[in-house]
Amino acid sequence: MTIALPLLTEDGTACCGTVAGGALESEQAERIARVFKALGDPTRVKLLSLIGGSDTGEMCICDLTDPVGLAQPTVSHHMKQLVEAGLATREQRGKWAYFRVVDGALQNAARTLLPE
Amino acid sequence: MTIALPLLTEDGTACCGTVAGGALESEQAERIARVFKALGDPTRVKLLSLIGGSDTGEMCICDLTDPVGLAQPTVSHHMKQLVEAGLATREQRGKWAYFRVVDGALQNAARTLLPE
Predict the structure, then answer these.
(1) Which of A48, B33, B40, B43 falls 20 to 30 Å from B113 in CA-CA distance?
(2) Whole-structure pTM value
(3) Residues A48, B61: contact at Cβ < 8 Å?
(4) What CA–CA distance (Å, rounded) separates B87 from B35?
């Protein structure tokens, strides 16, 4: 009996060889792309920068609308994408949601892609 | 005569105050978002990682197709987006295009957004 061994892995990347050796695994590449995709929008770049640069490291949704000049539902939608990408955390306190930057999430994605 | 002073700058960000102090300028946010948008795709994440991790720091388009399992025109299209975002450079040598990672481009974008 002969068994056909696949030369390609299920995700379509080559199974081995020097050229493929430097490539990220597909799952890892998808995870990293999700992080960067969330930051592929100038409003979300501004929002994350605002929160990261705030004195307490935390910002209320109520203080994020004015600096980006957008209504709260729109800002909430943008913040949801940043939270889902693992770049920010959300905590509901009474009426308002508060957001923090996840330490190292962006830098880790950048370093996994291109180690310094 | 009274003059109405705008409380908002033309790009919609607040002109001043502690909350707005941490925000990036719109132009800067757009530049950063362009860099990250180019990496919001797992194939482009893989391509940049492959080039950055190669022994010579340079890769021929002819060696990039197999590892990502895509045809050359598709890979060329992805590489064009990485070049336009300032993440890679392209050099034509005879028949083939060769690509290099632009040192520090990704890390600079990440650090401008969130200084470490």
Answers:
(1) B43
(2) 0.80
(3) no
(4) 7
Question: E strands along A3-105, which residues?
Answer: 58-60, 88-93, 96-101
pLDDT tens-place string over residues A90-100 = 999 999 999 99
Give the one of B14, B42, B49 whose C-beta lies nearest to A67's C-beta: B14
CATH topology of domain B24-113: Arc Repressor Mutant, subunit A (1.10.10)
- A26-113: CATH number: 1.10.10.10
Confidence band of A116 (pLDDT split at 50, 70, 90)? confident
Contact A76, A59 (CB under 8 A): no
CA distance B13 to chain A (A): 5
* ipTM at complex level: 0.80
